[in-house]
């Protein structure tokens, strides 16, 4: 019995000894993992592993000792949490002793120490002991990269867990690390080493007398010139090293006396990257430096920055120089001074003014802008700097503006003034009289108004921008100034086409200032715009029609631009709606373009109202019933319908109205949206017009119950409303509404109404929660589609319904979407619907603007395009290969639409496998397919030239074929030139002029560059 027990106990030990021998003597790597797994499972203890290694650890052959220690270290790396404290003590003593061993053994010893440095309950004093041993016994920089990395990891681990013990070493720890790091070249190790240095400084380890040595051992890498090798598996970028080193250099003011001369030297060098890195590092240093550190170097720093901004050809260097000057000024501004101390900020700013101020008097010279930028960068750093520079510069610039009479010079000076004004809002002043601009406000306003009346549109443009900035400054514009400003903006809003940029700027300024001064714009601008609209109504017949239409359009744009405040919206919205009613009553002659222009202004106004819930509801509650009433009235059958009523039912007008209704609905709260839906849905289902203004209609409104074609067209407005509602708003009579929409969607007598109904049905499907009712709606839709897709008049409308329902399901990842997509693919082979089905893939992959949008609360998954590509492109490719020759273009067109809408990062890896198809698509006669395919190939040519080079012959041939088109006009050139000879002798000068111009164009036809 005793013998059996002994055999049983010896069996595991024997197995362990066998694994050890296989690793140490047999040079096999697998046993190490097996031993570690057995220790973790409890089959062996670490002590048993050490005993099994036995003679291997003391073997006279260094390679054998190294293999034995390597096995033990690998086990410890995986099993260190299982160690007992006394085992850790003995192991550390063992490993420390082996640091004196042969150089072949050292890497395995370091791995073991790294494992032990991870032990959570390391006894006190051992961390210090290990590091002292490493510093004393190991010449780290003679080791391979991976072993040096191990040493850095050991130090990092101890700094994270034994900080107080290491600090007890004092400056010896810092000196030891300096020896470890000195001479390091590998970027992987440098990232870790820089992090250790940063922690030494930021965690307040003692640097003792080794501040300069620590600086030298890190600054020798500045500036970083590392370039990663191609296909670097480690992924270390130059920027990683730059930022890591910068964090070290800028971490302590104690480096300032050594670092600042180095930065000045590198800024003055000829190497662009060194200049940028130095200026960015200086910028970072200013966050931790004070006046004491900067004092001795300020003249040299200013000279270097000034030279770079004045002379550099690089915009990046200029920007970094200005940022560094800003940071220097901010650093000098925030330092706390003793009463008897010198104020370095004042002298520093005086130097800047002395070197830059006189250049501001030379608006035509090249140093005027660099000087202005330097002064503005310093002024933007602090309140004191802003006051000092503004009080010195603004009087000079105001004087220069009046001194120079040319518009381009005045524009330059005003742009400089604008730059100084823009830095003012950063600083707050309790007393308005303390504000540096207070004493200049009258001169500034006068100067701006002079610019706004100047003939130069460029000077006017700067004047408008300056006026806007003045308006944002507290108490700078008096009521009189505001009235004048509004008058100028009104005038500028009606500038001719050649002053488009000024007019647009004036509209933007009106919107910005109206938010700040709604009373002034309500009193002085809105009445003028209302008068302009009324003048339009009374005088249109007597004056030039085109001029009046143009002013009409500009007036509408001004009304929408100024509607940025709720109080103004309550004046401008009724004004626009009243104008619409005047059009409807026939008091004003108008066409579709005028109505669309009004709707566009309303839409812009609705967008501005979205930020204010109360204003949003006011707009919706006022505008939507009015638009619906106008449309319903226009749709009521009459014996002799008026021209304007026909206009209101045109596709473009209804689409513009729908856009307004959608925009006015998307930002409603669920409670208010629910209130609105209980009125609008019954309007379309039951003809309930009680909530509409002027609702005495001659007959009932029944768009779904055998209503007239005009009434059916209004379903587009219902679509805009219900498809913009929040998802949690319950729609009354939903079942009935869905059936009515489904029925109308296959109505062939009015494609516009059918498409609107299909989109509305799809929009509601997309938002409907999963469940039995959704399944019923989908089954109903499928039955309708299949019944109507058979040959007949409704076939085209049934396809449209299928397309929109498919999109609604694709966007929300509904399981049925794959079935519908397959049905759509099947139609690519259809002789009648094939080309249309191919174009349908563009719709499936595109973002819509009216329905199924995120803004309209539709359920749109982020990766729906990628998923659609993965699920369907293989079937498209397979279908292409199996399709007859006359059908192949449809598959190519569908595929090109899918690929063209796919995000480029997803597309690039997939394109090489589809390249043969894309090359074939270039031969397709359809120009849409050609353009879409070229859009797919362009990124591949740039990103994967090695793949494209295999097809270079085919590509060049096909590109050349596409680069020329058949001559259509050239054969007629001689005939036209002969025929145009006769009008050259016409008795009317205008005819002769046009004949000369036309004949000249035909002479040039076909010549190079024509």
TrEMBL record:
Pfam hit, one:
MMS19_N
Q: Where is the MMS19 C-terminal domain?
A: 555-967
SUPFAM superfamilies from the xrefs? ARM repeat (SSF48371)
Source organism per entry reads Dipodomys ordii (Ord's kangaroo rat)
Query: What cellular component terms from Gene Ontology apply here?
Result: cytosolic [4Fe-4S] assembly targeting complex; MMXD complex; nucleus
Designated name of the protein: MMS19 nucleotide excision repair protein
The record lists the membrane-crossing segments as none
* Oligomeric and partner information: Component of the CIA complex. In the CIA complex, interacts directly with CIAO2B and CIAO3. Component of the MMXD complex, composed of CIAO1, ERCC2, CIAO2B, MMS19 and SLC25A5. Interacts with CIAO2B; the interaction is direct. Interacts with ERCC2/XPD; the interaction is direct. Interacts with ERCC3/XPB and NCOA3/RAC3. Interacts with RTEL1; the interaction mediates the association of RTEL1 with the CIA complex. Interacts with BRIP1.
User: Where can this protein be found?
Assistant: Cytoplasm, Cytoskeleton, Spindle; Nucleus
List the keywords (alphabetical).
Answer: Cytoplasm, Cytoskeleton, DNA damage, DNA repair, Nucleus, Repeat
Superkingdom: Eukaryota
Q: Which family does it belong to?
A: Belongs to the MET18/MMS19 family.
Q: Which residue numbers delimit the MMS19 N-terminal domain?
A: 50-311
Q: Please give the function described in this protein's UniProt entry.
A: Key component of the cytosolic iron-sulfur protein assembly (CIA) complex, a multiprotein complex that mediates the incorporation of iron-sulfur cluster into apoproteins specifically involved in DNA metabolism and genomic integrity. In the CIA complex, MMS19 acts as an adapter between early-acting CIA components and a subset of cellular target iron-sulfur proteins.
Major localisation: cytoplasm
Name the GO terms of the biological process aspect.
Answer: DNA repair; iron-sulfur cluster assembly; protein maturation
């Amino acid at each position: 019995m005793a013998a059996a027990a002994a055999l049983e106990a010896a069996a595991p030990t024997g197995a362990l000894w066998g694994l050890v021998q296989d690793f140490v003597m047999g040079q096999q790597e697998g046993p190490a993992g097996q031993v570690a797994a057995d220790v973790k499972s409890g089959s062996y203890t670490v002590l048993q592993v050490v005993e099994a290694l036995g003679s291997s650890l003391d073997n006279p052959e260094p390679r054998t000792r190294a293999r034995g220690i390597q096995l033990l270290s690998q086990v410890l790396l995986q099993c260190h949490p299982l160690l007992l404290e006394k085992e850790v003590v003995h192991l550390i003593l063992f490993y420390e002793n082996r640091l004196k061993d042969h150089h072949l053994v050292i890497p395995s010893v370091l791995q073991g120490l790294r494992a032990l440095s991870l032990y959570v309950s390391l006894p006190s004093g051992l961390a210090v002991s290990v590091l002292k041993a490493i510093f004393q016994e190991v010449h780290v920089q003679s080791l391979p990269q991976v072993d040096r990395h191990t040493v850095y990891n050991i130090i990092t681990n101890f700094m994270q867990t034994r900080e107080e013990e290491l600090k007890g070493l004092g400056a010896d720890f810092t000196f030891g690390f300096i020896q470890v790091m000195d001479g390091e070249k590998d970027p992987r190790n440098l990232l870790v080493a820089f992090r250790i240095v940063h922690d030494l400084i930021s965690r307040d380890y003692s640097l003792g007398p080794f501040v300069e040595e620590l600086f030298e051992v890190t600054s020798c890498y500045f500036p970083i010139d590392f370039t990663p090798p191609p296909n670097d598996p480690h992924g270390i970028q130059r920027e990683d090293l730059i930022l890591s080193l910068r964090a070290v250099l800028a971490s302590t003011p104690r480096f300032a006396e050594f670092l600042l001369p180095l930065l000045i030297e590198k800024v003055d060098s000829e190497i662009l990257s060194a200049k940028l890195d130095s200026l960015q590092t200086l910028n970072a240093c200013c966050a931790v430096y004070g006046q004491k550190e900067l004092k001795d170097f300020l003249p040299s720093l200013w000279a270097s920055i000034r030279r770079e901004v004045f002379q550099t050809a690089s915009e990046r260097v200029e920007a970094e120089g200005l940022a560094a000057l800003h940071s220097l000024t901010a650093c000098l501004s925030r330092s706390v001074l003793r009463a008897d101390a010198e104020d370095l900020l004042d002298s520093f700013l005086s130097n800047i003014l002395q070197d830059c101020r006189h250049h501001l008097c030379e608006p035509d010279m090249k140093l005027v802008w660099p000087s202005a930028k330097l002064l503005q960068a310093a002024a933007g750093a602090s309140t004191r700097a802003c006051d000092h520079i503004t009080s010195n510069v603004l009087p000079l610039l105001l004087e220069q503006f009046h001194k120079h009479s040319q518009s381009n010079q005045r524009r330059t000076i005003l742009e400089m003034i604008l730059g100084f004004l823009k830095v003012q809002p950063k600083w707050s002043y309790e007393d308005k009289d303390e504000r540096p601009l207070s004493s200049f406000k009258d001169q500034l306003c006068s100067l701006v108004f002079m610019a706004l009346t100047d003939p130069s549109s460029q000077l006017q443009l700067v004047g408008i921008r300056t006026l806007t900035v003045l308006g944002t400054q507290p108490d700078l514009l008096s009521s009189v100034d505001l009235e004048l400003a509004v008058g100028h903006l009104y005038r500028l809003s009606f500038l001719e086409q050649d002053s488009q940029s000024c007019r647009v700027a004036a509209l933007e300024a009106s919107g910005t200032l109206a938010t700040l001064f709604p009373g002034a714009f309500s009193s002085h601008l809105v009445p003028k715009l209302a008068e302009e609209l009324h003048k339009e109504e009374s005088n249109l017949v007597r004056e030039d029609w085109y001029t009046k239409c143009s002013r009409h359009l500009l007036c509408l744009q001004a009304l929408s631009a100024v509607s940025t405040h709720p109080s103004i919206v309550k004046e401008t919205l009724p004004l626009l709606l009243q104008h619409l009613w005047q059009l409807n009553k026939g008091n004003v002659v108008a066409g579709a373009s005028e109505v669309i222009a009004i709707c566009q202004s309303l839409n812009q106004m609705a967008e501005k109202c979205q930020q204010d819930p109360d204003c949003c509801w006011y707009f919706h509650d006022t505008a939507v019933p009015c638009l619906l009433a106008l449309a319903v009235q226009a749709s009521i059958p009459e014996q002799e319908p008026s021209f304007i009523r026909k206009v209101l039912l045109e596709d473009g007008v209804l689409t513009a109205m729908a856009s307004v209704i959608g925009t006015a609905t998307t930002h409603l709260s669920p409670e208010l949206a629910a209130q609105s839906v209980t009125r609008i849905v019954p309007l379309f289902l039951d003809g309930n017009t009680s909530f509409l203004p002027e609702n005495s209609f001659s007959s009932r409104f029944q768009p779904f119950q055998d209503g007239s074609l005009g009434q059916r067209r209004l379903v587009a407005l219902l679509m805009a409303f219900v498809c913009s509602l929040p998802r949690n708003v319950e729609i009354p009579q939903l079942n009935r509404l869905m059936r009515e929409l489904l029925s109308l969607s296959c109505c062939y007598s009015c494609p516009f109404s059918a498409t609107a109904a299909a989109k509305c049905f799809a929009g509601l499907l997309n938002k409907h929660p999963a469940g039995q009712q959704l399944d019923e709606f989908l089954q109903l839709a499928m039955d309708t589609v299949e019944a109507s897709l058979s040959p007949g008049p409704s076939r085209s409308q049934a396809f449209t319904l299928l397309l929109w329902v498919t999109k609604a399901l694709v966007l929300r990842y509904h399981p049925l979407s794959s079935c519908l997509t397959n049905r759509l693919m099947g139609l690519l082979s259809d002789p009648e619907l094939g080309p249309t089905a191919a174009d349908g893939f563009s719709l499936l992959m595109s973002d819509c603007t009216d329905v199924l949008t995120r803004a309209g609360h539709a359920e749109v998954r982020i990766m729906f395009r990628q998923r659609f590509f993965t699920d369907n492109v293989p079937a498209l490719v397979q279908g292409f290969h199996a399709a007859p020759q006359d059908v192949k273009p449809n598959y190519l067109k569908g595929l090109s639409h899918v690929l063209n809408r796919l995000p480029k990062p997803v597309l690039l890896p997939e394109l090489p496998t589809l390249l043969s198809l894309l090359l074939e698509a270039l031969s397709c006669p359809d120009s849409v397919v050609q353009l879409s395919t070229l859009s797919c190939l362009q990124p591949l040519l740039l990103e994967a030239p090695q793949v494209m080079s295999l097809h270079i012959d085919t590509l060049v041939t096909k590109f050349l074929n596409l680069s020329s088109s058949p001559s259509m006009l050239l054969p007629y050139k001689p005939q036209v030139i002969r025929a145009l000879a006769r009008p050259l002798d016409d008795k009317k000068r205008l005819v002769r002029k046009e004949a000369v111009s036309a004949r000249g164009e035909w002479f040039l036809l076909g010549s190079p560059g024509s």
